[in-house]
Amino acid sequence: MSAEERKQGGSEAATEAESAGDDSEVLDDEPRNILSGLIAQLRKGMDLHRVTLPTFVLEPRSMTERITDFMSHPQLIHDTSLKDDPVTRFVDVLRYYLSGWHIKPKGVKKPYNPILGEHFRCRWQFQDGTEALFVSEQVSHHPPVSAYYYASPENNLTVVGEMRPKSKFLGNSAATVMEGFTHIEFTNRPGEEYVVSLPTVYVRGILFGTM
């Protein structure tokens, strides 16, 4: 195939991806063949964490950083602890939890598996002058377990949790069971704690259809 043909093929793939929506990604022939060869080696129910995946299906970051996606809008609960109505506080926490699920990469991407002891740190600086700190660490490799801690003392907020993803190949789909819990606490309200879990994530259309 000439360079011009490859360029034209890439343009057609890009156009097809755009027409399918921002969440779709159309693979060229080479990565599609690699993926097909990989899938041929899989067996239904196989643990995908023990499978070496090609880089084009991976995000350019690891799970220790990916966790921060779930904390994209912490300002939604910065003033929650100051509200007297417990139902209002509950709704605020629920809204904050759901807000972390709107960020996702284009197409179907899996973050890199962190190595044991790997950690990620970052800081938020908010418009009101307050800030928050985050640290996560891979505390187990087999099975993979990521622990994380978020704190914004000026906003009376701490978020502590662990994530234990388990991925399974299911034929034309794959599932990631997100075991573990997140504990949300307001430091000025002792004894009040919100414990949330993560949903099971499915990827369908691996062999037939659009991922």
UniProtKB/TrEMBL annotation:
Q: Where is this region: Disordered?
A: 1-28
* Cited Gene3D superfamilies: 1.10.287.2720, 2.40.160.120
Q: List where Acidic residues composition bias occurs.
A: 19-28
> Could you state one GO cellular component term attached to this entry?
cytosol
Q: Name one GO molecular function term.
A: sterol binding
Q: Name one Pfam family in it.
A: Oxysterol_BP
Q: Which top-level group of life is the source organism from?
A: Eukaryota
Member of which family?
Answer: Belongs to the OSBP family.
What's the protein name?
A: Oxysterol-binding protein
